[in-house]
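FW: tagging you since you asked about this chain on Friday. Here's the raw sequence from the shared folder, copied in full. Didn't touch anything.
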Amino acid sequence: MSSSLLRSSFRYMVGFGSLIGMAVPAIKQTHAADFAIAEPAPSPVYQAPDPSRFGLIGQKLHEWNVIVGAGAMIEAKYEGSDEFEVSPVPYISATFGDWLSVDPGGIEAKVYETGPFVFSAKLGYETGRKEGDADELDGLGDVDFGVTLGGKAAAKFGPAEFFGSVEKTIGGSDGLLAVAGIELTQAFTSSLLLGVKASATFADDNHMEAYFGIDAGQSRRSGYREFEAESGFKRVDFSATATMAVTENWFARGEGGVGILVGDAADSPIVKDEVQPFGLVVVGYRF
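HL: got it, structure written out here
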Protein backbone atom coordinates (compact mmCIF):
# COMPACT_ATOMS: atom_id res chain seq x y z
CA MET A 1 0.00 0.00 0.00
CA SER A 2 1.36 3.46 -0.85
CA SER A 3 2.07 5.73 2.10
CA SER A 4 -0.33 8.40 0.89
CA LEU A 5 -3.12 5.84 0.55
CA LEU A 6 -2.34 4.40 3.98
CA ARG A 7 -2.47 7.87 5.50
CA SER A 8 -5.82 8.58 3.87
CA SER A 9 -7.14 5.18 4.91
CA PHE A 10 -6.36 5.90 8.54
CA ARG A 11 -7.83 9.37 8.24
CA TYR A 12 -11.18 8.05 7.06
CA MET A 13 -11.13 5.12 9.44
CA VAL A 14 -10.48 7.34 12.40
CA GLY A 15 -11.66 10.72 11.23
CA PHE A 16 -15.23 9.71 10.46
CA GLY A 17 -16.22 9.60 14.10
CA SER A 18 -13.48 6.98 14.47
CA LEU A 19 -14.73 5.01 11.54
CA ILE A 20 -14.65 1.65 13.23
CA GLY A 21 -14.49 3.06 16.75
CA MET A 22 -17.84 4.77 16.22
CA ALA A 23 -19.24 1.61 14.72
CA VAL A 24 -18.56 -0.43 17.81
CA PRO A 25 -19.90 1.88 20.50
CA ALA A 26 -22.80 2.06 18.07
CA ILE A 27 -23.52 -1.45 19.17
CA LYS A 28 -23.79 -0.44 22.83
CA GLN A 29 -25.41 3.00 23.28
CA THR A 30 -28.09 4.71 21.23
CA HIS A 31 -26.95 8.28 21.94
CA ALA A 32 -23.40 7.34 20.87
CA ALA A 33 -24.34 5.76 17.55
CA ASP A 34 -26.20 2.82 19.02
CA PHE A 35 -28.09 -0.04 17.49
CA ALA A 36 -30.56 0.02 20.37
CA ILE A 37 -34.03 1.34 19.60
CA ALA A 38 -36.77 2.82 21.73
CA GLU A 39 -39.05 -0.20 21.31
CA PRO A 40 -37.99 -3.25 23.33
CA ALA A 41 -36.34 -5.99 21.33
CA PRO A 42 -36.78 -9.57 22.60
CA SER A 43 -33.33 -10.69 21.43
CA PRO A 44 -30.86 -7.83 20.80
CA VAL A 45 -28.43 -8.67 18.03
CA TYR A 46 -25.53 -7.27 20.02
CA GLN A 47 -24.90 -8.36 23.58
CA ALA A 48 -21.69 -8.29 25.59
CA PRO A 49 -19.97 -11.64 25.06
CA ASP A 50 -19.53 -13.92 28.02
CA PRO A 51 -15.89 -13.33 29.13
CA SER A 52 -15.64 -16.88 30.46
CA ARG A 53 -15.60 -18.16 26.90
CA PHE A 54 -12.17 -16.62 26.36
CA GLY A 55 -10.60 -17.06 29.78
CA LEU A 56 -8.53 -14.35 31.46
CA ILE A 57 -7.20 -12.90 28.18
CA GLY A 58 -10.65 -12.75 26.67
CA GLN A 59 -12.00 -11.10 29.80
CA LYS A 60 -9.37 -8.37 29.55
CA LEU A 61 -10.08 -7.90 25.85
CA HIS A 62 -13.75 -7.46 26.70
CA GLU A 63 -13.03 -5.03 29.54
CA TRP A 64 -10.81 -2.97 27.24
CA ASN A 65 -13.40 -3.04 24.43
CA VAL A 66 -10.96 -4.48 21.90
CA ILE A 67 -11.95 -4.62 18.23
CA VAL A 68 -10.10 -6.39 15.43
CA GLY A 69 -11.02 -6.30 11.78
CA ALA A 70 -9.91 -6.07 8.18
CA GLY A 71 -11.23 -4.85 4.89
CA ALA A 72 -10.40 -3.08 1.67
CA MET A 73 -10.36 0.52 0.49
CA ILE A 74 -10.46 2.14 -2.92
CA GLU A 75 -9.05 5.64 -3.18
CA ALA A 76 -6.95 7.92 -5.38
CA LYS A 77 -3.24 7.05 -5.51
CA TYR A 78 -2.45 10.44 -3.99
CA GLU A 79 -4.46 13.51 -3.05
CA GLY A 80 -5.36 15.01 -6.42
CA SER A 81 -4.77 11.93 -8.58
CA ASP A 82 -7.27 10.72 -11.16
CA GLU A 83 -6.10 7.10 -10.80
CA PHE A 84 -7.31 4.69 -8.13
CA GLU A 85 -6.12 1.57 -6.41
CA VAL A 86 -7.57 -0.95 -4.00
CA SER A 87 -5.61 -1.74 -0.84
CA PRO A 88 -6.15 -3.98 2.21
CA VAL A 89 -7.02 -2.21 5.46
CA PRO A 90 -6.11 -3.95 8.75
CA TYR A 91 -7.71 -2.59 11.91
CA ILE A 92 -7.33 -2.99 15.67
CA SER A 93 -8.48 -0.67 18.44
CA ALA A 94 -8.95 -0.63 22.20
CA THR A 95 -10.82 1.65 24.58
CA PHE A 96 -9.78 1.91 28.21
CA GLY A 97 -12.59 3.11 30.46
CA ASP A 98 -14.39 6.09 28.98
CA TRP A 99 -11.36 8.36 28.57
CA LEU A 100 -8.59 6.67 26.52
CA SER A 101 -8.71 5.08 23.07
CA VAL A 102 -6.00 3.61 20.85
CA ASP A 103 -6.52 2.88 17.15
CA PRO A 104 -4.56 2.95 13.85
CA GLY A 105 -4.57 6.76 13.89
CA GLY A 106 -2.89 7.04 17.28
CA ILE A 107 -4.00 7.81 20.83
CA GLU A 108 -6.85 10.04 21.99
CA ALA A 109 -7.46 10.95 25.64
CA LYS A 110 -10.49 12.77 27.00
CA VAL A 111 -9.27 15.68 29.14
CA TYR A 112 -12.51 17.46 30.01
CA GLU A 113 -16.24 16.86 29.70
CA THR A 114 -19.20 18.99 30.68
CA GLY A 115 -22.74 18.43 29.48
CA PRO A 116 -22.69 17.71 25.74
CA PHE A 117 -19.15 19.09 25.31
CA VAL A 118 -16.03 16.89 25.23
CA PHE A 119 -12.42 18.04 24.83
CA SER A 120 -9.69 15.55 23.93
CA ALA A 121 -5.93 15.50 23.32
CA LYS A 122 -4.55 13.52 20.38
CA LEU A 123 -1.20 11.95 19.50
CA GLY A 124 -0.83 10.52 16.02
CA TYR A 125 1.30 10.56 12.91
CA GLU A 126 1.43 11.64 9.28
CA THR A 127 2.93 9.01 6.99
CA GLY A 128 3.76 11.57 4.31
CA ARG A 129 3.96 10.84 0.58
CA LYS A 130 6.45 8.97 -1.56
CA GLU A 131 7.61 10.12 -4.98
CA GLY A 132 7.05 6.59 -6.20
CA ASP A 133 3.36 6.58 -5.25
CA ALA A 134 2.44 7.69 -8.78
CA ASP A 135 4.15 8.67 -12.03
CA GLU A 136 2.76 12.19 -11.68
CA LEU A 137 4.92 12.69 -8.57
CA ASP A 138 8.24 11.99 -10.31
CA GLY A 139 10.74 14.72 -9.50
CA LEU A 140 8.81 16.12 -6.54
CA GLY A 141 10.67 14.20 -3.84
CA ASP A 142 9.22 12.62 -0.71
CA VAL A 143 7.23 14.13 2.14
CA ASP A 144 8.67 12.43 5.22
CA PHE A 145 6.93 10.79 8.16
CA GLY A 146 5.96 13.08 11.04
CA VAL A 147 4.36 12.92 14.49
CA THR A 148 1.14 14.87 15.04
CA LEU A 149 0.02 16.58 18.24
CA GLY A 150 -3.37 18.18 18.63
CA GLY A 151 -6.76 18.36 20.20
CA LYS A 152 -10.44 17.94 19.43
CA ALA A 153 -13.61 19.59 20.70
CA ALA A 154 -17.02 18.01 20.14
CA ALA A 155 -20.59 18.76 21.14
CA LYS A 156 -23.33 16.13 20.81
CA PHE A 157 -27.01 16.96 20.61
CA GLY A 158 -29.19 13.94 19.97
CA PRO A 159 -28.03 12.24 16.76
CA ALA A 160 -25.92 15.26 15.72
CA GLU A 161 -22.32 15.86 16.73
CA PHE A 162 -20.49 19.08 15.90
CA PHE A 163 -16.71 18.80 16.02
CA GLY A 164 -13.51 20.67 15.40
CA SER A 165 -9.89 19.52 15.60
CA VAL A 166 -6.40 20.95 15.16
CA GLU A 167 -3.25 18.90 14.55
CA LYS A 168 0.34 20.08 14.21
CA THR A 169 2.87 17.85 12.47
CA ILE A 170 6.37 17.64 13.92
CA GLY A 171 8.74 16.57 11.15
CA GLY A 172 7.51 15.63 7.71
CA SER A 173 5.50 18.53 6.29
CA ASP A 174 5.76 20.52 9.57
CA GLY A 175 2.22 21.55 8.71
CA LEU A 176 -0.96 22.28 10.59
CA LEU A 177 -4.44 21.00 9.74
CA ALA A 178 -7.76 22.15 11.19
CA VAL A 179 -10.99 20.29 10.51
CA ALA A 180 -14.55 21.30 11.37
CA GLY A 181 -17.76 19.50 10.57
CA ILE A 182 -20.97 17.77 11.59
CA GLU A 183 -21.87 14.11 11.82
CA LEU A 184 -25.35 12.57 12.09
CA THR A 185 -25.88 8.96 13.19
CA GLN A 186 -29.14 7.12 13.64
CA ALA A 187 -30.06 3.55 14.55
CA PHE A 188 -32.86 2.42 12.23
CA THR A 189 -33.23 -1.09 13.63
CA SER A 190 -31.63 -3.12 16.40
CA SER A 191 -28.91 -4.15 13.94
CA LEU A 192 -28.54 -1.29 11.46
CA LEU A 193 -26.84 2.06 12.03
CA LEU A 194 -26.62 4.74 9.33
CA GLY A 195 -24.57 7.92 9.38
CA VAL A 196 -23.66 10.92 7.27
CA LYS A 197 -20.88 13.46 7.70
CA ALA A 198 -19.73 16.76 6.20
CA SER A 199 -16.45 18.52 7.00
CA ALA A 200 -14.04 21.19 5.78
CA THR A 201 -10.24 21.12 6.15
CA PHE A 202 -7.95 24.13 6.55
CA ALA A 203 -4.18 23.78 5.99
CA ASP A 204 -1.31 26.15 6.72
CA ASP A 205 1.49 27.21 4.34
CA ASN A 206 3.81 24.35 5.33
CA HIS A 207 1.28 21.63 4.63
CA MET A 208 0.13 23.21 1.37
CA GLU A 209 3.68 23.69 0.09
CA ALA A 210 4.67 20.13 1.02
CA TYR A 211 1.76 18.47 -0.77
CA PHE A 212 0.70 20.93 -3.48
CA GLY A 213 3.52 23.45 -4.01
CA ILE A 214 6.28 23.18 -6.61
CA ASP A 215 9.55 25.03 -6.05
CA ALA A 216 12.23 25.81 -8.65
CA GLY A 217 14.13 22.55 -8.13
CA GLN A 218 11.00 20.43 -8.30
CA SER A 219 9.93 22.30 -11.42
CA ARG A 220 13.21 21.48 -13.20
CA ARG A 221 13.08 17.81 -12.23
CA SER A 222 9.38 17.20 -12.86
CA GLY A 223 8.55 19.52 -15.74
CA TYR A 224 5.70 21.15 -13.81
CA ARG A 225 5.53 24.93 -13.65
CA GLU A 226 6.48 26.54 -10.35
CA PHE A 227 3.53 26.93 -8.02
CA GLU A 228 3.25 28.51 -4.57
CA ALA A 229 0.49 26.93 -2.49
CA GLU A 230 -0.61 29.20 0.33
CA SER A 231 -2.61 28.53 3.47
CA GLY A 232 -6.39 28.25 3.25
CA PHE A 233 -9.19 25.73 2.96
CA LYS A 234 -7.91 22.79 0.94
CA ARG A 235 -10.92 20.43 0.74
CA VAL A 236 -14.48 19.66 1.77
CA ASP A 237 -15.66 16.10 2.40
CA PHE A 238 -19.02 14.35 2.36
CA SER A 239 -19.53 10.73 3.32
CA ALA A 240 -22.12 8.16 4.40
CA THR A 241 -21.75 4.95 6.40
CA ALA A 242 -23.79 1.85 7.17
CA THR A 243 -22.96 -0.55 10.00
CA MET A 244 -24.69 -3.90 10.30
CA ALA A 245 -24.58 -6.27 13.27
CA VAL A 246 -24.16 -9.69 11.69
CA THR A 247 -23.97 -11.85 14.83
CA GLU A 248 -23.51 -11.26 18.53
CA ASN A 249 -19.90 -10.15 18.02
CA TRP A 250 -19.35 -9.75 14.27
CA PHE A 251 -20.25 -6.63 12.34
CA ALA A 252 -19.75 -5.26 8.84
CA ARG A 253 -19.30 -1.59 7.94
CA GLY A 254 -19.27 0.19 4.62
CA GLU A 255 -18.44 3.80 3.83
CA GLY A 256 -18.54 5.83 0.66
CA GLY A 257 -17.83 9.47 0.09
CA VAL A 258 -16.20 12.19 -1.90
CA GLY A 259 -13.67 14.91 -1.16
CA ILE A 260 -13.51 18.06 -3.26
CA LEU A 261 -10.23 19.98 -3.40
CA VAL A 262 -10.59 23.76 -3.25
CA GLY A 263 -8.37 26.85 -3.27
CA ASP A 264 -4.68 26.44 -4.05
CA ALA A 265 -4.98 22.68 -3.58
CA ALA A 266 -7.34 22.50 -6.54
CA ASP A 267 -5.14 24.84 -8.62
CA SER A 268 -1.90 22.87 -8.12
CA PRO A 269 -0.37 21.45 -11.33
CA ILE A 270 -0.09 18.00 -9.73
CA VAL A 271 -3.86 17.80 -9.20
CA LYS A 272 -5.42 15.88 -12.06
CA ASP A 273 -8.94 15.72 -10.60
CA GLU A 274 -10.42 17.97 -7.92
CA VAL A 275 -13.08 15.37 -7.08
CA GLN A 276 -11.69 12.58 -4.89
CA PRO A 277 -14.16 9.71 -4.29
CA PHE A 278 -13.40 6.83 -1.97
CA GLY A 279 -14.98 3.66 -0.61
CA LEU A 280 -14.28 1.33 2.29
CA VAL A 281 -15.62 -2.03 3.49
CA VAL A 282 -14.56 -3.54 6.82
CA VAL A 283 -15.57 -6.68 8.73
CA GLY A 284 -14.78 -6.62 12.45
CA TYR A 285 -15.08 -8.59 15.68
CA ARG A 286 -15.72 -7.04 19.06
CA PHE A 287 -14.57 -8.96 22.14
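FW: DSSP finds six helices and twelve strands in the chain.
HL: agreed, and The radius of gyration is 20 Å.
FW: great, closing this out.
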